[in-house]
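User: Okay, second chain of the day. Same drill as before: sequence in, structure tokens out.
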Amino acid sequence: MLRYLHTVFDYCVDGKAIGVLHMEKLELHVILWKGKIDEAYRNKGHGSSMMKEMIERIHEQYGIYTYVKKDNVGSLRFCKRLGFKEVGESIETVYTNYDMENAVLLKIEQGLGNKKTF
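Assistant: Same drill. Structure tokens below.
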């Protein structure tokens, strides 16, 4: 039986929510489904900071997966810079309507979050 918890991670700057991550927590890993930064705060490092904070909070206990569309070169580069690596495995998920055929599955192993800055 698939057990999951849909989680929303809000990212705040000076008390204002400027970003959000939508995740699905399964028994052994977390799937990052969607992330967004308010337009006024983009290209200022907030997306990187939000992702690094999320990774640092959960990577010790869970592996983190994400799917990125194959043609979304910028997002693929961004995720790889954060320490995600392409994996050939598939994972069981409740989101069966996601277009897995045109996506790349990436993962950060449990306990191996990238703590370097760039």
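Confidence is low (pLDDT under 50) at residues 112-118.

User: Thanks, on to the next one.
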